[in-house]
Amino acid sequence: MATFLYKLGRLAFRRRHFVALIWVALLTLAGVGAASAPAAGTTSFSIPGTEAQKAFDLLEQRFPGMSADGATARVVFKAPDGQKMTDAGNKATVEDTVKELSDGSEVASVADPYTAQAVSKDGTVAYASVKYDVSGMELQDSSRDALEDAAQDARDAGLTVEIGGDALQTVPHTGATEIIGIGVAAVVLVITFGSLIAAGLPLLTALIGVGIGISTITALASTLELGSTTSTLAMMIGLAVGIDYALFIVSRYRAELAEGREREEAAGRAVGTAGSAVVFAGLTVVIALVGLSVVNIPMLTKMGIAAAGTVVIAVLIALTMIPALLGYAGKKVQPAGKKSRWLGGKRAAKKAASGSEAGRPAKPNLGTRWASFVVRRPIAILLLGVVGLGAAAIPATSLELGLGDDGSQPTSTTQRRAYDLLSDGFGPGFNGPLMVVVDAQGSGDPDAAFKQVGDDIKGIKNVVAVTPATPNKAGDTATITVIPDAKPSSVTTEDLVHAIRDKGAEVKADTDATVLVTGSTAMNIDVSEKLNDALLPYLALVVGLAFLLLIVVFRSILVPLKAALGFLLSVMAALGAVVAVFQWGWFAGLLGVEETGPVMSMMPIFMVGVVFGLAMDYEVFLVTRMREAYVHGEKPSQAVVTGFKYGARVVSAAAVIMMAVFAGFIGSSESMVKMIGFGLAIAVFFDAFVVRMAIVPAVLALLGKKAWWLPKWLDRALPNVDVEGEGLRTDAEAKGSEDPDEDRALVRA
Question: How far apart are CA 472 and CA 425, in angstroms?
Fold first, then answer.
């Protein structure tokens, strides 16, 4: 592989005009496709195989005019102090509002509070249910404006009016912090390279790669039903890995220049060595993201595949466009150790010319000094790192999972205020009604089956109200609404869903009718359970595939095993931090978290996938340098120090950049994006600076030569991918007579 990538790097360097033209053409094509694509339609949320989804599908068949996936709104009215909603004036205002709402072109139905018994017992709160023909994301702005105008008219009449439901659902925004994250990345690159030109290359290529990826997602959003969160997460991951992969290749290029190689040769060797690590690091990220499909939740699968596609683009751009741009930059990209004249290079040159630095031994860099310290005290560093991460992981033992509803919205939103009004007027369970679907098609007496189900549910604990069964036109299927006693995200409501489903088994035996529980609350419960059940198989699949891949890369058993265990430590510590902030409320105000509550159900499995891929990035980049030194004859402990000498600065810069990019998404208005941004940023910190910078060198120092042990039979069976670039020297020497300048450069190396 190294030989192929070496040739690719040299070709891209020589044919830079052609390579640049290809990428600009792809960016233009993707941009035109995004601009001309139809607006994204509905992003259906389905969970194949769950009871809630089966009931939802049954409703679509048996109640064809029900618009089960249509947007809903609850317009909640509260009477002024000392008045009731049944007072004549207030009642007239509500009826006018209902009439105004009914005139909407996309409105399917509006339920009058006074005929639908939607007035609280104390008479102070009432609500009107609005049903639309289209989903929340498809709803036209005119319909949302009409909804808000009707509410404002009622407010002007003296009532307190708030709106809940998904009719006001909007595309989330990320805020200015995303730009700040990119700015931090730019500063880190300038400090790392000491050159504005060299620092600009990773940023430029990352932005081009993300531009192609996001434009492609936008172009396909309507066809593939991709939600706004999909493009946001693809941009988050694409920016981070795009900058990092380009950073590693540019850094290796400068190191090759410092060895005295010609620029084209240096570009080829940078792509052949660091590029090999980029390929395998990118492959681990892709495996982790595509592996999300095993959960069998279409939305999560689409998110993973879209983000994986962006990572593939980042890898291809790093391997081709970076050497092409290095060709354009020419001598403006200095060898490692030299800075541009604008960043102190002129001052350093004067010192060298005056001889003030002559005779002094070169001072070891920080990476060398740190690695030497760890190698001398491996046990203490190992214990400190493991205990520290273990302490950070303690809050994860209190992890509560759930999906957000209006109750998790900030108190400044009308959705949250409507949620609170309904809880005060009708009880906390009113915000999470359960819909029970009774399929009596195989029953001899459907009406009797409907009545039995309603009576049985009334006898279950923690049930506040049960509505009479509402059959369809055929009379073979009915819906029953159940109001729980507790709020939607509580364990009590979850137990109630299971109790109703258990009671359904008895009904099936007595009447041959099938009882299914659905609704948003039941759907959330099923999602959480499905994700929990899939976590271990997913972890085994992803870690297993990556473990095999790393055995091929490092030709070792213990190094990949150590990498996997280190990842588990960092991801558990990161989950602990997420629980502490988003569930317990630690530093919530500092991070803009207005409401605490259960952690998003998708968070653990998504974090496992992404963090594993990113953790293996640092493992590959850092340990590859160590193996390269070991293969070339250094002792194991010295190889660790050498790996840090050349890799620690770049890996640290890459980690800071990735943290900055992820942290930039904490400003998002979407709670899931905010949580993922924080979780990934803190996970990168733990993995890069505790696991890879402390635990990894400590373990390798303790293992010594055993770290690189591989059974002989396995060594013979494994393909030689040559990540270290050992084959480059042999190939170049073989054609030395054809290219004497290149040959002399290889001999000097």
Answer: 31
Residues 149-168, mean pLDDT to the nearest whole number: 89
Residue 61: which region, alpha, beta or left (left: phi > 0; alpha: psi -120 to 50)?
alpha
Q: Are 607 and 676 in contact (CB under 8 A)?
A: yes
Query: Nearest-CA neighbor of 176 among 689, 724, 664?
Result: 664
Judge contact between 272 and 6, C-beta under 8 A: yes
pLDDT tens digit sequence for 574-623: 999 999 988 888 887 777 776 777 788 778 887 887 787 777 777 877 88
Q: How far is CA 408 from the centre of its chain?
A: 20
Q: Are 281 and 617 in contact (CB under 8 A)?
A: yes
Tokens of 210: 């993300």
Report the C-alpha gap between 514 and 530 in whole angstroms: 22
Question: Strand (E) positions, 444-556?
Answer: 463-466, 470-471, 477-484, 514-518
Amino acid code (one letter) for 78: K
- How far apart CA 591 and CA 599 sit, in angstroms, is 15
pLDDT above 90 covers a percentage of the chain that reads 19
> Helices 2-14 and 263-290 meet at what angle, rounded to 10?
120
Cβ–Cβ < 8 Å for 130, 73: yes
For 80: left if phi > 0, alpha if psi spans -120 to 50, otherwise beta; the answer is beta
Which token pair is 509? 């035996």
List the end-to-end C-alpha distance of the chain, in Å, as a whole number. Answer: 20
Q: ∠ CA 167-172-175 to the nearest 5 degrees?
A: 145
Please determine, for residue 432, whether its predicted confidence score (pLDDT) is greater than 90: no
Half-sphere exposure of 133 (CA within 13 A, CB side): 9
Residue labelled with tokens 């696991």: 691
Alpha carbons 276 and 620: distance in angstroms, whole number = 10
Q: What stretches of 330-443 show up as alpha helix (H) in DSSP?
A: 345-354, 366-376, 378-393, 414-426
Q: Nearest-CA neighbor of 195 among 406, 338, 31, 350?
A: 338
Of how many residues is the chain composed? 749
- For residues 252 and 257, give the distance between their C-alpha atoms in angstroms, rounded to a whole number: 9
Give the tokens for residue 161.
């009016």
* Distance of alpha carbon 43 from alpha carbon 135, whole angstroms: 9
Q: Which residue in the block uniquely carries the two structure tokens 């760890």? A: 374
What is 128-151 written as a DSSP string?
A: EEEEESS-TTT--HHHHHHHHHHH
Q: Which two tokens stand for residue 306?
A: 């879209």
